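Q: What structure does this chain adopt?
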Amino acid sequence: EVQTGLCRTGKLLAVNHENVKPDIVCLGKALSGGTLPISAVLADNHVMDVITPGTHGSTYGGNPLACRVAMESLQVLEDEDLAGNSQKQGEVLRNGLKSMNSPFITEVRGKGLLNAIEIDESKQDVHGGAWNLCLQLAENGLLAKPTHGNIIRFAPPLIIDYQQMEECLSILEKVLVP
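A:
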């Protein structure tokens, strides 16, 4: 849940989509709202009682300020219903991408505000593939990350609103629909 947790996928934890309860969940990155480094492990007592002092370590463990910030960050996620916003705006993004009928896109996938498009590999040589498309998006004001060669990942901020998402889709259409 380091990348997928804390409302990124439209639920507090991504595992909540699957209706399962893991023995251990690791949290990080978003736990402090991006302000301080912190990580956490969530588990029931029967698991945590096995981990005794001195048998584990943490790069970012035990910082009282970071812990307090994390508590406030979690409250903001709840108070502002950022999981709900993530779900709603993610649907707007995915529906918008699918309706573009871009010759580059072979698949649109994601949950909440963690999304990706797969770029047609046959167009890699002609148009430079995912990397060059990301450069074109950046030139037009939208940052995206290419992964695995032909995948472009989109992870907008949890606070994005409808107007901002429409602006993103406008930039995406400008680049992805020649």
